[in-house]
Structures are given as C-alpha cells and as structure tokens.
Amino acid sequence: MVKITGEYHGELHCTAKHGPSGRTLETDAPVDNQGRGETFSPTDLVATALGTCILTTLGIAARRLGLDLKGARFEVTKEMSADTPRRILRLATHVWLPMPRSADRDAVLERTAHACPVHKSLSPAVDVPVVIHWLE
C-alpha cells in the first residue's frame, strides 16, 4: 500500500507528496478551467499515469523476453468534455518502440500495452486507443 498526501495552497494550486520516497509534485488547474496552467493539472496526471504505466509494463514484459526498451517513448493526447461535469473523454495514446516488428513477440507487447493497471482502472466511458509504432 502506498500513501500519497496533499495540500491545497490556494489559487487552484496543490502539492502532493509520495509517502515512500518523499518526492513532491505540484498541480494547477488548466487555463480552460480557471487556472493558470503553470504545471500538470490533475487530469494531465491521469494521462501521464497512462503513458508511463504502459511503458513500465512494456519494460517488465520486455525484460522477461530478454529485450531492452531503452528509448521507447509515448504521447498521450487528452480530450476533455465541453459540458459539465468536466471529465476525460479520450486518451489517444501512441507508443514508439525502439525495435522492428517481430511476429513472435508483437502479440505479447501489444496485449501488455492494453493491459497496464492504469488502462484497466479507467472507466469504460473513457476512449483509450493505443497505437504501437515499431522501428522501421
């Protein structure tokens, strides 16, 4: 179990602290929701969590397969609802892997990308397409 604590500092700014490491991060409301957009918004962190979770679980699968994914990268485009309540509608995700296609491992890595814990924790109402790009 991991404990995260947080504090509101006013002006729509918060700080969160990761219990085990003591590291902190700050959030701000986005410009389109009364904030200054000076750092990640809470929903930006959801998109970030998805991308990093996919790369992390791919790294675990790659390790089992004897592969090195160093240099793999992701891009998540977050789309919010225009109506209320505000919510994440779509997290379009692209992952670039530093290796060419290989039939014997592609299915494992593709399944892994769609099965990370964050992806599995999102509401089915959130559209989460994941596209894998292989090295040419």
SS-derived structural category = alpha+beta
Oligomer: single chain
Task: Report the count of strand segments.
Answer: 6
Number of alpha- plus pi-helical segments: 3
Shape: globular
Which sheet architecture does the biggest sheet show?
A: 3 strands, antiparallel
Index terms:
29% strand; 3-stranded antiparallel sheet; 136 residues; globular; 6 strands; alpha+beta; 3 helices; 3-stranded mixed sheet; 30% helix
Can you describe what's shown?
With 136 residues, the chain is of the alpha+beta class. It is built from 3 helices and 6 strands; from the N terminus they run βββαββααβ. Strands 1-2-3 form a 3-stranded antiparallel sheet, with no helix packed on it. A 3-stranded mixed sheet has the order 4-5-6, covered by helices on one side. Strand 1 (4-10) and strand 2 (13-18) form a beta hairpin. The longest helix is centred in the middle third of the chain and has 24 residues, at 42-65. The N and C termini lie far apart (41 Å). The mean pLDDT is 95.
Question: Layout of SSEs?
Answer:
Layout: E1 4-10, E2 13-18, E3 24-28, H1 42-65, E4 73-80, E5 88-96, H2 103-114, H3 117-121, E6 130-133
Parallel strand pairs: 5-6
Antiparallel strand pairs: 1-2, 2-3, 4-5
